[in-house]
């Protein structure tokens, strides 16, 4: 079976109301944010299970690896199955994983819950291309920007909410509450969203086999996936080590205080909608350039911020702004490259994106063991520099690629 790129990619229910977009943004924020609850809680988790902080920090890498696996194996099903039902089912299963974390009695049980929550939280990446598919012509970048704003705010606020809830009721209450809220929002999605299905559905085997063909044949997809993967790897070095530095370094902060610092990064998510609009206007390269420069500038601030809280907060704002500019621009661009394979294109992109995140988390933990905060910052700078170099080497690729057959 082959499908031409010129085939219609419109869904039976065009357009999305603002309330539907907001609900999708909320769901994406809950799904993605759940993978970041552990970051400000590592000290408390390690103490609860009587393990080292490095052992507890493996949950950060595991969450990213599980999410990447879900992106590769589950998110492409959006090109085969009814998207609303798929997103709701995955979100309910992610809630089960969060509940398992919340009631875990030992570290292996907690890690199993982390694995399940990460794997099934790719419901967010079914909703993102669904928003692009249902958007009015010429507004897909804006729709992706709105939904991704929710996802990004979820990631950023998750650390703050987790820290505050942990400070008040204990770290397990974070996961128990998240499981309940996710289940409620999943059922709300089922009632509120229209049915949405790829007009030319393909088999699961064809879905998986065609993803490699897409990566091989689409230079724009390869370039933008690499840039975003390197950028997220750089930021994940920070995510995997910040709690260790802030809790044990000269600042000596607690869970709640570390969580509040995550609020600073929320400013970066405010650019998400604007970045999507720049793509719609053909100015994606400008947004990418801003993101790459912000990523580079953030790490000197964070290095000084290891012992000076003001600089750390400023670095958090700048690094999140850089990552969001790059990710939103690249993801919105990828969504436009081949509408008939939108789910698979997004899955390839996001698999690479979170593979970069997992690698950054693992390398960041290793750098911390070898040389503490200085080692982590050196690694973050190196990865940010690689992302910047790839950004400025990237050809203009936000237009449609040449038509091809997708098998």
Describe this structure in a few short sentences.
With 407 residues, the protein is mainly α. Helix content is 76%, strand content 1%. The chain contains 16 helices and 2 strands.
Structural commentary:
The chain is mostly helical. The protein has one domain: Up-down Bundle (Growth Hormone, Chain: A), CATH 1.20.1250.20. Helices cover 76% and strands 1% of the residues. The chain is built from 16 helices and 2 strands. The chain has helices at residues 18-33, 42-49, 53-73, 83-102, 107-120, 124-134, 140-169, 171-192, 204-217, 219-248, 255-261, 266-269, 272-280, 284-305, 309-337, 342-393; strands at residues 3-4, 405-406. The protein has a two-stranded antiparallel ribbon with strand order 1-2. Helix 4 (83-102) runs antiparallel to helix 6 and helix 6 packs across helix 16. The protein is globular, with a radius of gyration of 20 Å.
Which features characterize this protein?
16 helices, mainly alpha, globular, 407 residues, two-stranded antiparallel ribbon, disordered C terminus, 1% strand, Growth Hormone, Chain: A, single chain
């Amino acid at each position: 079976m082959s499908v031409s790129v010129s085939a219609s990619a419109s869904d039976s229910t065009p357009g999305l109301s603002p309330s539907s977009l907001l609900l999708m943004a909320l769901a994406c924020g809950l799904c993605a944010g759940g993978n970041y609850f552990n970051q400000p809680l590592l000290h408390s988790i390690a103490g609860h299970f009587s393990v080292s902080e490095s052992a507890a920090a493996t949950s950060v890498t595991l969450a990213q690896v599980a999410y990447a696996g879900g992106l590769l194996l589950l998110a492409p099903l959006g090109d085969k199955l009814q998207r609303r039902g798929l997103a709701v089912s995955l979100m309910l299963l992610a809630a089960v994983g969060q509940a398992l974390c919340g009631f875990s009695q030992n570290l292996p049980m907690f890690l199993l819950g982390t694995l399940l929550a990460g794997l099934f939280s790719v419901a967010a990446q079914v909703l993102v291309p669904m928003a692009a598919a249902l958007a009015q012509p010429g507004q897909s970048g804006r729709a992706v920007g709105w939904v991704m704003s929710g996802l990004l705010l979820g990631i950023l606020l998750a650390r703050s909410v987790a820290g505050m809830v942990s400070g008040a009721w204990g770290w397990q209450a974070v996961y128990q509450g998240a499981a309940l809220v996710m289940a409620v929002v999943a059922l709300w999605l089922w009632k509120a969203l229209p049915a949405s299905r790829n007009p030319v559905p393909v088999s699961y085997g064809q879905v998986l086999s065609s993803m490699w063909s897409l990566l091989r044949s689409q230079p724009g997809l390869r370039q933008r996936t690499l840039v975003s993967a390197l950028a997220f790897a750089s930021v994940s070095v920070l995510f995997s080590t910040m709690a260790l530095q802030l809790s044990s370094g000269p600042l000596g902060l607690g869970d709640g205080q570390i969580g509040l610092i995550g609020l600073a990064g929320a400013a970066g998510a405010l650019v998400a909608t604007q970045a999507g609009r720049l793509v719609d206007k053909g100015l994606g390269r400008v947004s990418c350039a801003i993101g790459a420069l912000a990523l580079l500038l953030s790490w000197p601030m964070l290095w000084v911020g290891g012992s000076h809280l003001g600089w750390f907060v400023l670095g958090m704002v700048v690094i999140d702004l850089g990552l969001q500019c790059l990710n939103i621009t690249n993801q919105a661009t990828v969504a436009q490259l081949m509408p008939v394979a939108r789910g698979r294109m997004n899955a390839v992109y996001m698999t690479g994106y979170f593979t970069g995140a997992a690698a950054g988390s693992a390398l960041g933990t290793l750098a911390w063991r070898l040389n503490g905060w200085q080692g982590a910052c050196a690694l973050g700078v190196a990865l940010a520099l690689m992302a910047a170099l790839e950004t400025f080497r990237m050809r203009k690729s936000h237009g449609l690629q040449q038509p091809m057959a997708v098998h």
